[in-house]
Amino acid sequence: MRRDTALIGHWDSAPFDHGVMESSMLEFRGDGRGGGTVANALGEDVTRFSWHCPEPGVLEVRDDHGTVERVRYTVTRATPTHAADPVPAVRFEPPLFFAREYARSSVVSP
Q1: What is the DSSP string of 83-96?
Q2: N or C, which end of the chain has less CB nearby within 10 Å?
Q3: How many CA atoms lie within 13 A of 108 on its CB side?
Q4: Is the peptide bond before 86 cis (omega within 30 degrees of 0)?
Q5: What is the dihedral angle through the alpha carbons of 90, 94, 96, 101, rounded to the nearest 10 degrees?
Q6: DSSP letter at 82?
Q7: In whole angstroms, what is the distance from residue 40 CA to residue 88 CA?
């Protein structure tokens, strides 16, 4: 299965969340595994998934229950809410794990 290596790593929506009581984090591993976390004042909800890119700019994730979500994405540079400089970012349409835009927080080995 095809995987876009530009997605591999850890991503966090917090830099783009302004006035929101919730944030999301994503992890994409080079072996096709990953996870999504939605965190708020009440705790965290973690979902493990497998992922691949059936075509350029399209991401498909399948959770442990077999639910499949397909979204369009763009890896680019964007300026977070309270920052002056752009950072590596990914934007999803529609939102993935309740967030539309994530900043790269770290890179993991492919």
Answers
A1: -SS-EEEEEEEEEE
A2: N
A3: 14
A4: no
A5: 30
A6: T
A7: 24
Region 43-52: mean pLDDT is 95
- Nearest to 90, CA basis, from 20, 31, 8: 8
Q: How far apart are CA 14 and CA 66, in angstroms?
A: 28
CB 92 within 8 A of CB 28: no
pLDDT for position 33? 97
Element (H, E) at 62: strand 58-63
pLDDT, the chain, mean: 92
Geometric angle at alpha carbon 44, from 98 and 38, rounded to 5°? 15
Domains of the chain in sequence order = 5-106 (2.40.128.360)
Q: Which amino acid is at 72?
A: R
